[in-house]
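This entry is listed below:
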Amino acid sequence: MKVTVAHISLNSAGGGERVCLAIVQALRKEGHDVRLATVDKTDWDRLNRVFGKVSLPSKEFYIFKTSLVEAASELGNALLVTSYLLELMFLRSRGKSEILISTCGEKVNSIADIVYVNGTPLRCVSRFSGMPPTRVCLSRLYHAALKVVDKVGGDNIVTNSKFTAQTLKECTGSRITIINPLVSLDAFAGAPEKQNGTNDVVVYSTFLPEHGIDHLQSVPRIASETPNASFLIIGPATEAAKGTISRFEKTVAKMHAENNIHIQTRSSREEYVEAVRNAKVFLRTLPHEPFGMSVVEAMAAGCVPVVPRDGGPWFDILEEKEGVYGFSYDSISEAAEKIRMVLENDELRTEVSARARRRAMDFDGSSFESKMLSAVKQVYSRKFQ
């Protein structure tokens, strides 16, 4: 069958982009004709560098030849979302593809036969406490606008976690199917028992202005309360992120944490895998995280995760079980306390690490492809019976 997979932009190279590429790969393996539609042109060399070799679509279509991710700004983000909305409506109206799949449901959770929601929908973030007033106002306005768009079609909504499904259900009343994202664990599994790795604690982040890294501001504060631990903040970055990284480095210096925090940007997939395999603790600082693919990867490598007590990492991955597969926190001091406890107690760390490795295998990607292909076949049958 002919399938069009639409994604706002793959150049961010984050978890949602990995899901989009996994769907393209699954459909190509089944022999389907897969077209990829994005707003800006995909930098395939960068994706291969960040993710390893990725599966290419049969054809690709885009609106802009220049990456809008590189020129990220409030105006640029608005242009991306508006262009994506128009692109979806155009693809839907043409009707030449049997199936239209949107893998940016967090931006637009309609106008496609199947919508995969990777993150907390923009229209729903006003429901979370602690959000900036401007963000809350934007969320409410966007929610009102999308109520009109929702009338184009109810569509089959798929999301990545119980946490995201509950958020979306409370916000829109939609019925949701949960399919955890594909997490390829081959490179992480089988890591040796941790002894004296280069870094005690690894923090993963995409250094992209449009994603924001405000959540990383807590890392220097945590590091200042764990002076004997070494922290590595690692992840992909673009030219547009230079200013963002520079400001963060100033925060690290201000907190006098430069001695135990190392920042490694523009890292390859191989460098990231090696860092996680050598670390003992994997720290997440992103609040309300939809799922947490990197958390699963780190667990497979034997890291003990320390995550905020909300979001997918806590509800879906750790199953709200403190000290079983990892640990959670509500404050800076609590995060530092949990990290110190893990690093100072080898017996505890070894026990939790072993359970974390086994738990990670529950999310291995083998079921993702079969479930997504099944969803596509069901939609095809209903649409063309």
